[in-house]
């Protein structure tokens, strides 16, 4: 879905769970690029705004999103869900996450981010987790998205991907993620 919520156009990916309820929405600016760095050239690949992505939401196995890029590449995101126990605040009926007690509670952690060339099967992998003792974390490492009427806006990512022959960089600006509760309508509120 191509839409314009602010000063720039975005591609919106929406995915539903087994009950046909929207569970994940990701907005990627239309001008986002994936660069493959070769010895004598850099190849620039855009997101394919005409192709529909695919995705699935599953609390046990994690949620994934496949976003088509041009030139036969697919970007694959995979999140794992970590539930949080319900903790009622005295007299308010809300938990510590701020959602009603019958809604899903927890966070999604970005576990895997890859780009694959469908024709050649070449895979580029990003290092999505930080390591103990790592001096500086990248913004995309340990990314958490809280379930419920909550969103996260990132000002921009330059993600390094590692391939067998070449490396690559994903350049994203003003990326927005939102995860939704297990019941009720999705209300995308993330325009930060």
Concise account of the structure shown:
The chain is an all-beta fold.
Walk me through this protein's architecture.
A hairpin with a 4-residue loop joins strand 1 (2-4) and strand 2 (9-16). Mean pLDDT is 71; it is low at 1-6, 88-103 and 181-192. With 192 residues, the protein is an all-beta fold. The protein has one domain (2-179): Porin, CATH 2.40.160. Strands 1, 2, 3, 4, 5, 6, 7, 8, 9, 10, 11, 12 and 13 form a 13-stranded antiparallel β-sheet that branches. It is built from no helices and 13 strands.
Q: Tell me, what is the CATH class?
A: Mainly Beta
Give me the secondary-structure category: mainly beta
The overall strand count is: 13
What is the level-2 CATH architecture name?
Beta Barrel
How is the main sheet built?
13 strands, antiparallel
What is the number of helical segments per DSSP (H or I, 4+ residues)?
0
What is the CATH T-level topology?
A: Porin
Q: What is the string of SSEs from the N terminus onward?
A: EEEEEEEEEEEEE
Distance from N terminus to C terminus (CA atoms, Å) equals 19 Å
Ranges with pLDDT <50 over ≥5 residues? 1-6, 88-103, 181-192
| Nearest-integer average pLDDT | 71
Instruction: Supply Rg.
Output: 18 Å
* Beta-strand fraction estimate: over 45%
| Whole-number tally of structural domains | 1
Please state the overall shape, judged from the principal axes of the Cα atoms. globular
Query: What percentage of residues falls in helices of 4 or more residues?
Result: under 10%
């Amino acid at each position: 879905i191509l839409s314009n919520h602010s000063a720039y156009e975005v591609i919106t990916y929406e995915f539903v769970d087994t009950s046909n309820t929207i569970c994940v929405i990701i907005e990627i600016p239309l001008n986002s690029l994936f660069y493959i760095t070769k010895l004598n050239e850099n190849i620039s690949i855009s997101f394919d705004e005409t192709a529909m992505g695919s995705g699935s939401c599953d609390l046990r196995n994690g949620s994934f999103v496949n976003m088509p890029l041009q030139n036969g590449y697919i970007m694959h995101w995979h999140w794992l869900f970590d539930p949080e126990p319900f903790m009622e605040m005295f007299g308010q009926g809300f938990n510590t996450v701020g959602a009603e007690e019958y809604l899903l509670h927890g966070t999604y952690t970005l576990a895997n981010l890859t780009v694959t060339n469908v024709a050649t099967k070449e895979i580029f992998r990003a290092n999505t987790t930080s390591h103990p003792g790592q001096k500086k974390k990248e913004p995309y490492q340990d990314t958490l998205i809280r379930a419920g009427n909550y969103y996260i806006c990132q000002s921009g990512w330059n993600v390094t991907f590692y391939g067998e022959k070449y490396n690559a960089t994903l350049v994203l600006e003003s990326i927005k993620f939102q995860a939704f509760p297990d019941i009720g309508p999705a209300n995308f509120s993330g325009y930060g």
